[in-house]
Amino acid sequence: MIQRLLALLVFLLQAGGPAHAQLPAGAGEAQLKAAILFNFAMFTEWPADTLPASAPLRLCVFQDNGLLPALAGLQEKQVNGHHVSVRTLSAQPAVAQLATCHLLVLDAQDRERWALLKRDLATSSVLTVADDRIIGANGAMISFGIDNRRVGFDVDMAPVRLARLSLSSKLLRLARSVQ
């Protein structure tokens, strides 16, 4: 199932125009979002000092995040030569622990945590992805949105640049909006 979703998303990314991934029959929203997150990682470039060639790509998620079961399916997949390592975070992780993440997935249950952590993470090279419009509007780099059963995403480039990350133009063309 994940393989088919990944193939669909690769096709959408190569199509070059704005797109929304529609929830395929039999596939859940969480699996589709996990596949899209995988593609965010594929089309993001981290500074060499934060993601050395032999290092795993650490995808971090809080233990109460609804996407966790779907994200666990990405464990050990390859992203540009890096094995994906899915890390489950405790409710109150140290900022130093978060700074070792490469991609941090947040949802509505993380609003209070995000308010406390976003300033400390601002200059860390951690791609922040929100499955929540409020976190998305408050400093997350990428935020999911659903319109008519279609999953789309918005990008805020200011925090992306501050974190020294580079998002592929292919990824940006698929966004509903880029600020």
Structure description:
With 179 residues, this protein is of the alpha/beta class. It has a single domain (2-166), classed as Rossmann fold. It is built from 8 helices and 11 strands. The protein has helices at residues 2-15, 29-42, 68-72, 95-98, 111-121, 133-137, 157-162, 169-174; strands at residues 21-22, 44-45, 57-62, 78-79, 82-89, 103-107, 127-131, 142-147, 150-155, 166-167, 177-178. Strands 1, 3, 4, 5, 6, 7, 8, 9 and 11 form a 9-stranded mixed β-sheet that branches. Strands 2-10 form a two-stranded antiparallel ribbon. Helix 5 (111-121) links the parallel strand 6 and strand 7. Helix 1 (2-15) crosses helix 2. The longest helix has 14 residues, at 2-15. 36% of the residues are buried. Mean pLDDT is 86; it is low at 1-19.
